[in-house]
């Protein structure tokens, strides 16, 4: 279940106190409490491979977005009554947190993903719904399947300002994209994540480190079998390539129709000019050379390029994951070979 930002947004004091005309500082870093990260990981792993979401709470201070707490959303089916219950659940959770003096200011949401497949239109629409009530927010993406390879697959994303301005106009034609100088790499912006812990937690972790020098994550890095992960990535990559081919066929069909229409318009104009020359010779008034009522002069709508941009983003993400896993796998294989020879 996705968040209902129109009913659950609570703005921080810094956001409320800021003047409407004040220029906001660009977001430089997302500072997350270790407890909030552990809650996100626990929630996403418990329900994997099902996708889950939750609310991020914290403060927006200058160029830093502090995430100090979070809570999960219950998994429900898509239904209006259930969505209303979900909104009431969020309001009740935030009220309870406020009563125990915990930060209850919404700064975004988190969601799990499967092999990095999160770049969808739904994600873009959720961002815009949130930013109608919050000046800036982030989405924390966590991938349990990628984390099983020994990497903490946690990233903070936001929409670029240029893309949001264009999305509000809902005009993703080639001419508009060239005018805004916007490409598929300009949709999302990844914000660096900084983990923050209290002094007591840091001291406790330093004591634990001496007793357990090797963690499970260290063992995960030594796993040589990456075939299942690579196979799923390649399968998803092939699906995205098929989707991209479908989008390209839409544009090819559009350009064929446009070329056919232009040819029909030229033929019609030539015939109209011949008729006007004959009318002038007969002393009659010439007919107009444009006829909006003629179907051949009706503009053909250009397909939106948003879907192709998102698919291209997804393909790039899969390729980067495959490259990263293959590189690490080769390094581990050479390391194990050297150890075996010795």
Assembly state (oligomeric): single chain
Say how many strands there are: 8
* Class of secondary structure makeup: alpha/beta
The end-to-end distance, rounded to whole angstroms, is: 54 Å
Which of globular, elongated, flat, extended, rod-shaped describes the shape?
Answer: elongated
Order of helices and strands: HHEHEEHEHEHEHHEEHHHH
User: Stretches where pLDDT falls below 50 for ≥5 residues?
Assistant: 6-21
- Percent helix among the residues? 40-55%
The neighbouring-strand order within the major sheet is 7-6-5-4-2-3-1-8
**In what range is the share of β-strand residues?**
5-15%
Report Rg.
27 Å
- The number of helices is 12
In round numbers, the mean pLDDT is 79
How is the biggest beta sheet arranged?
A: 8 strands, mixed
GO cellular component, one term: eukaryotic translation initiation factor 3 complex
Domain MPN: 30-163
GO molecular function: metallopeptidase activity; translation initiation factor activity
Main location: cytoplasm
């Amino acid at each position: 279940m996705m968040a209902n930002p129109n009913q659950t947004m609570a703005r921080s004091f810094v956001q409320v106190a800021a003047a409407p005309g004040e220029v906001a500082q660009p977001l430089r870093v997302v500072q997350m409490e270790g407890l909030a990260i552990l809650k996100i990981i626990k929630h996403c792993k418990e329900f994997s491979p099902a996708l889950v979401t939750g609310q991020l709470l914290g403060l927006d201070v200058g160029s830093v977005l502090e995430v100090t707490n979070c809570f999960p959303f219950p998994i429900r089916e898509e239904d209006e009554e259930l969505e209303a219950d979900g909104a009431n659940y969020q309001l009740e959770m935030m009220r309870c947190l406020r009563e125990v003096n915990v930060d209850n200011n919404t700064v975004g949401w988190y969601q799990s993903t499967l092999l990095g497949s999160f770049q969808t239109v739904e994600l873009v629409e959720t961002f815009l719904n949130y930013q109608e009530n919050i000046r800036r927010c982030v989405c924390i993406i966590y991938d349990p399947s990628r984390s099983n390879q020994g990497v903490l697959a946690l990233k903070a994303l936001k929409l670029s300002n240029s893309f949001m301005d264009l999305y509000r106009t809902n005009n993703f034609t080639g001419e508009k994209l060239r005018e805004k100088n916007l490409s598929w790499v300009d949709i999302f912006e990844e914000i660096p994540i900084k983990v923050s812990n209290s002094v007591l937690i840091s001291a406790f972790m330093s004591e634990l480190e001496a007793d357990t020098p090797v963690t499970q994550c260290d063992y995960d890095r030594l796993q040589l079998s990456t075939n299942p992960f690579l196979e799923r990535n390649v399968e998803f990559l092939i699906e995205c390539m098929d989707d991209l081919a479908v989008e390209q066929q839409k544009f090819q069909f559009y350009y064929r129709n446009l070329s056919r229409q232009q040819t029909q318009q030229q033929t019609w104009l030539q015939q109209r000019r011949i008729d006007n020359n004959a009318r002038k010779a007969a002393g009659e008034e010439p007919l107009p050379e444009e006829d909006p009522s003629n179907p051949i002069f009706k503009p053909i709508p250009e397909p939106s390029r948003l879907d192709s941009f998102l698919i291209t983003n997804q393909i790039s993400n899969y390729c980067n994951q495959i490259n990263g896993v293959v590189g690490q796998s080769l390094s581990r294989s050479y390391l194990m070979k050297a150890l075996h020879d010795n």
